[in-house]
Automatic annotation (TrEMBL):
Residues 12-102 form the Acylphosphatase-like domain. This is Acylphosphatase-like domain-containing protein. PROSITE patterns: ACYLPHOSPHATASE_3. Belongs to the acylphosphatase family. SUPFAM superfamilies: Acylphosphatase/BLUF domain-like. It comes from the Eukaryota. InterPro entries: Acylphosphatase-like_dom, Acylphosphatase-like_dom_sf.
Length: 102
């Protein structure tokens, strides 16, 4: 029987963002927004126009992060695509926070 105290389902996914993004400003924005939403994981720059990372959190929060990235006025023209891959349910978090990895 489900109770109100049940833990929400934790989802995990890999993500890729590509486009002509202003490096420092975008990195700070992505980390700040993920932390505000309560997501965990990381983002790292893999090439001049490509970021990759991991998100962990409730499915609706992961979707909110994706929508936020797509609608952020200063990045709309710069982001070519935001792809979420390997979305799955996990039993517990493996990251303590959301961070920028160099």
């Amino acid at each position: 029987m489900a109770t109100a105290q049940e833990k929400p389902t934790i989802m995990a996914c890999d993500f890729d963002i590509s486009g002509k993004l202003p490096k420092e400003a975008f990195e700070m924005f992505a980390v700040a927004q993920a932390k505000l939403l309560g997501l965990r994981g990381y983002i790292t720059k893999v090439s001049e126009e490509h970021y990759r990372g991991v998100l962990q959190g409730e499915g609706k929060v992961i979707e909110a992060f994706k929508n936020l990235m797509a609608s952020a006025a200063e990045y709309v023209a710069a982001i070519k695509e935001f792809i979420v891959k390997n979305l799955k349910v996990i039993s517990d978090y493996t990251y303590d926070t959301f961070e920028l990895r160099k």
